[in-house]
Automatic annotation (TrEMBL):
Residues 115-140 form the Siroheme synthase central domain. This is precorrin-2 dehydrogenase. InterPro entries: Met8-like (IPR028161), Sirohaem_synthase_central (IPR028281), Sirohaem_synthase_N (IPR006367). One of its GO terms (molecular function) is precorrin-2 dehydrogenase activity. The keyword NAD applies.
Amino acid sequence: MFPINLDLTRLSVALVGNGQATLNRLRQFDGDGAKYVTVYSEDPIPELAEQAGDRLQRYLPNSADVNAASIMFIIDLDLKKAAELASIAKAVGTIANVEDVKQYCDFSSPARIQRGDLMITVSTNGKSPRLAGRIRRAIEHWLDPKWSERLSILSAEREKWKAEGADMKQLLEKTDDFIDRRRWLP
């Protein structure tokens, strides 16, 4: 697997599912500022229908719908329907994830910790999402909220150094020195 962060303010997302797990993912997308999410659900729980609003399509996507999406997440569907949708995605070139069914996934979603723009992800390559989640919770205790401010301070310094003409090697050295002088890391 190759790690990547996607800008969901630019990509179209098809979210397929009916229940609480689909609702959780939709809330995550909404919290991340995703702009182009379409929710496909034959039988959505009321909270999912409410959160989706006019983005809700009360059917499973067809090949044209899947083709229109950059990325598709399939959650809490029975395995047969999920496999069919994954097959359609493969045929039209849309990358897809069938939650917790690795053989149908083009990608996996790592557990993540976020403090402002600082994001740390943990992945087991789909082998144990529960372990990834527990490691994430352990890191959360160490990565307190002040890291968001630290990143902002460091980013401003880095921009200043770049404006002063620092090359990549100098940026690395200055960054290490800045972090070390403040004893941010052991």
